[in-house]
Structure to design on (161 residues):
């Protein structure tokens, strides 16, 4: 089984980690994971938008419309909703199309993502920044801020902003 590192402990990093079929180490340089999730939507977590036609969905993105059509045909808001619902998280649609958990709490989404990571046995490391990445043959050697070095088969960058 491949050894994968996900750099970035936000929503994208967690979602990638819990859906990866391989062993994942998830690194977050700050104290807490999923901090933007916690405050999104005023603390209610705007999970997605109720637009289920990829050709219409891409119109909401001023840059990258053409580039997003393919990915949105493979995985789009209805898939996000189904993924969370399969894990017991129901959503509601607001008048403007935004989708929130019925609990109106971002903690519902945070708890779901963290529980999925724990079920998979993912390694979650906070306060862990990457100081250096070196290519070694077909693998990657990461030097972390505490001086440790670790070898991975693949890297997924989910560093957001």
């Amino acid at each position: 089984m491949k050894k994968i590192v996900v750099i970035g402990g936000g929503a994208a990093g967690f979602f990638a980690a819990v859906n990866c079929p391989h062993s994942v180490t998830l690194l977050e340089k700050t104290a807490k994971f999923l901090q933007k999730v916690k405050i999104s939507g005023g603390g209610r977590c705007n999970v997605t938008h109720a637009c289920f036609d990829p050709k219409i969905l891409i119109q909401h993105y001023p840059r990258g419309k053409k580039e997003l059509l393919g990915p949105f045909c493979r995985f789009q808001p209805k898939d996000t909703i189904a993924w969370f619902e399969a894990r017991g998280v129901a959503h509601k649609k607001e008048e403007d199309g935004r989708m929130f958990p019925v609990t109106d709490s971002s903690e519902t989404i945070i708890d779901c993502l963290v529980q999925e990571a724990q079920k998979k046995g993912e390694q979650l490391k906070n306060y862990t920044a990457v100081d250096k990445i070196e290519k070694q043959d077909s693998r990657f050697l990461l030097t972390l801020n505490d001086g440790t070095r670790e070898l991975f088969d693949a890297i997924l960058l989910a560093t957001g902003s």
Q: What stands out?
A: The chain has six helices and ten strands. The helical segments are 11-19, 35-39, 54-57, 65-74, 77-85, 106-120. The longest strand covers residues 130-136. The chain has a mean pLDDT of 96.
